[in-house]
């Protein structure tokens, strides 16, 4: 079976650590070294490589012009300096893509600064959501979703996952759940290991995964 694409938007100063758990585990082979059900496909505004916040050079697999919700299981957007109010137009095309995905019923996951971009696009006005703080997302021009803000690490509402930048593990868990990547006992053990540091969860995870 050909793995289904999970698309990851990439742009200069992307906060690579916010999606590290996501990409590693979506692309990870199982304990029998078989490919998983999904593969991460990177999407850029152009074909030019970008430089992440961590200094990694990443070349897009495809461009936004080639991106279609019909050929995707999810669109994931990480934070970056280019989502900020002074650069509000830099990632507009990625926010537009998120709108197309949500309109098509395909999930979108946004963390940290990406939530600011979605707020500026009006995508948080009628959905429950979170961000780095209520004050942070209020910086978005034309944001009208304050009544729907929730002070939680991750919030899921009608196909949209939003997360604070300090919760990459919880963000990953919500993405795994939305993709039905793991059975519930595996997902629980995974989160206990990476989210709480419980050493006993390592053995539970190994056993559950088998």
TrEMBL record:
What protein does this entry describe? Answer: DJ-1/PfpI family protein
Write the lineage as a comma-separated list. Answer: Bacteria, Bacillati, Actinomycetota, Actinomycetes, Mycobacteriales
Question: Sorted alphabetically, which InterPro entries does this protein's record hold?
Answer: Class_I_gatase-like (IPR029062), DJ-1/PfpI (IPR002818), INH-QAR (IPR052158)
Organism listed in the record:
Rhodococcus daqingensis
Database matches in SUPFAM superfamilies? Class I glutamine amidotransferase-like
| Stretches assigned to the DJ-1/PfpI domain | 7-176
Q: Which Pfam families match?
A: DJ-1_PfpI (PF01965)
Q: Which domain of life is it from?
A: Bacteria
